[in-house]
Amino acid sequence: MKKIILLIASIVIGATAFAQQPNCCKVAAASNSGMSVFSSDAAFRKAHKSPKAYTLVDAKGAMIQFDAADGKKANAYMIKASSSSNKYVFLIHEWWGLNDYIKKDADKLYADLGGKVNIMALDLYDGKVTSNRDSAAAYMGAANAARIISILNGAFTFAGTKAEIISMGWCFGGGWALQSSILAGDKSKGTVMYYGMTEKDPAKLTSLKGDVLGIFGTKDKWINPEMVETFKKDLTAAHKNYTFRIFDADHAFANPSNPQYNKAYTKEAWGMSVAFIKKAFLL
Fold it and tell me: Are 60 and 82 in contact (CB under 8 A)?
């Protein structure tokens, strides 16, 4: 009987403690069940063909380390603006990790923005990178939300108190781009999310600053049209501005290594992303 009472007390205390957590920790707890819920989905794994080997040459940036909020070091691929700037784009990788494909996108985005913006491709896996989809599923499933929040908060600090930040990501990174913008508060100037997990708690969207550009696919079985429609309604209810482009495409259609890759749609989505960032930063 005493054991039962103690167990009940522990549950009550735990629930009370969670209710008293700061907002960032609540975001972390909620987000931990984001794309990671698909890590054990065999169909989701099968939908992601292992990327072909690729090595970035003539890189515009370099790997750096910065202090995460938990006191540990964090990594990013960094390209500094050609002249001093407080404008940053945080790029967040897919479930493969911070590979050379993401670094290539960072280089391309830097060039398309005229070198006027700092680009930080954040490493949310602490150095783990793979081209094996089973390993990628394991990495995504094991991704520690508290650690990711610490990395994001460390990146905000690194960018500085006057930083203006747009977060952009794909799949796993698309969901975390949204969470990054929620956490960034007034520093956030917008979000670009490609088929990433939406925020299920409408109350959290009230903290979102800047507009949202959402890139989705009608054939996506995971970030599906019903989920996107609910996200629309929640953003509208929170009085947030958004633009959604919903292509007749499957999940991860913008990844060249994916069997569902659509070159034309990817080009259009990228053009929209660059235009969105330029407008948000008044470039």
Answer: no
- What is the C-alpha to C-alpha distance for residues 106 and 101, in angstroms, rounded to an integer? 9
State whether the Cα torsion 14-20-72-99 is positive or negative. Answer: positive
Q: Are 202 and 223 in contact (CB under 8 A)?
A: no
Residue 233 phi/psi, 5-degree rounding, is: -65, -40
Q: Give the chain's mean pLDDT.
A: 89
* Token digits of residue 249: 């495409």
Paired tokens of 218: 């009608």
The C-alpha atoms of residue 157 and residue 145 are separated, in whole angstroms, by 18
Which of left, alpha, beta for 85 (phi over 0: left; psi -120 to 50: alpha)?
beta
Q: What 3-state DSSP class applies to 66?
A: strand
What are the structure tokens assigned to 212, written together? 């949202």
Q: Is the separation of the CB atoms in 258 and 52 below 8 Å?
A: no
Q: The whole model's pTM is what?
A: 0.88
Q: Cβ(217)–Cβ(196) under 8 Å?
A: no
128 burial level (CB within 10 Å; 0-12, 13-18, 19+): middle
Going by the DSSP 8-state scheme, the letter that residue 199 receives in this structure is: P
Largest interatomic CA distance in the chain: 69
CA 166, distance to chain mean position in Å, is: 11
Which residue carries 């070198």 as its tokens? 115
pLDDT per residue as tens digits for the range 143-185: 999 999 999 999 999 999 999 999 999 999 999 999 999 999 9
